[in-house]
Every structure is written in structure tokens, then in C-alpha cells.
Design brief:
By secondary structure, the protein is of the alpha/beta class. Helices cover 35% and strands 20% of the residues. Helix 1 (18-30) links the parallel strand 1 (5-10) and strand 2 (36-41). Helix 1 packs parallel to helix 6. It is globular.
Amino acid sequence: MRARKILIINGHPDKESFNFGLSEAYKKGAKKTDAIIKEINIRELNFNVNLEFGYRKRTELEPDLLDAQEKLKWADHIVWIYPVWWGSVPAIMKGFLDRVLLPGFAFKKREGSAWWDKYFTGKTVRLICTMDQPTWYYRLINRSPSHHAMKKLTMQFIGVKKVKITSIGPLRLSNANFRERWLQKIELLGAKNK
């Protein structure tokens, strides 16, 4: 059986955040298998987060974004780790999505049609999201806007059918035991390549 190719993408702009601990925990678990692991820490990339001309005019991709596209093409399983801020993803991660998941790379609109071709079929995705509200409140009261945007409107739009979500919260008032338990759970996910 072929080794699973896993790409871990961290969308938190602060390297001291718990999100980076979660990335390390997932990687630690995945290393216990025969998986091949690559990483992207969006905060370390040198790129303009603004898709200046929308899709009207092409903005040339910086070397870091070209490298990110190669890693995304390479991966079988993509793990996104990020905080939920204002019901969405951090601005730097949104800019990364806008700049990298371009027409011709992640999808292609069909001429004269409302439909499109999806180029990320066959891949799987795990979203690991931290938040400062209880996860049940985010789901039941706020209707999980970032989960919906990432799963349905982004990942499934480009062809990823299997998208699993792990929500962690409330983080702001959590204690060391709560965080340690989550690091262990995320390490187990990594060990299962899920």
C-alpha cells in the first residue's frame, strides 16, 4: 500500500498560538505511520494577501505561493488548522485561499455554462478549528459559518468530497488539562491519518 501524502497547513498568524501546538501534535501522530508529511505555515510565506484585480486580471504568484500550489497538488490529505475569528478564518488565511485556489489550478469554469470542473477530486480534508465560544453554541446558535464556508463553499467547490471537521472550544478560558487532552486527541487523528 502506498504511503499517504499529508499536507498540514497552519493558518494562525501567531507562532506562539495553541494552533501551532495542534500542528505539532498532528505531525507527531502522523510520523508514527508511513505517511509522508509536508507543511505550510501561512504566516511564514512572503506574499500579497490581496487578490488585487479579482479574476479580471492575473496577479503573478510569488515563489512561496507557487511552492504552496505544488504541495497542494502533491497531497492526498490536507489538514487545515486555524482559529475561528469573527465567524471566519484569519485574514492571512483568507488571502492565501484567494491567491492560491485560482481558476485553472483548483477549478475551471466551463465556457457558456454555470458549471465548473473540479481539480481536487480524490483528496480528503480535515479542518481543525479553535474558537473562544463553546462549540455547541457556534453550531446551534451561530450556524457554523466558517465551517460551512471552508467545507461546502471552498473544499467541496474544488472537488474534495470528504471533509471532516474538529472544533475545539472554548479556548480562551481553558485550562492546561483541557488543552493537553486536545493535543492528545489531535495526535491520535494524525496517527490515523484522518
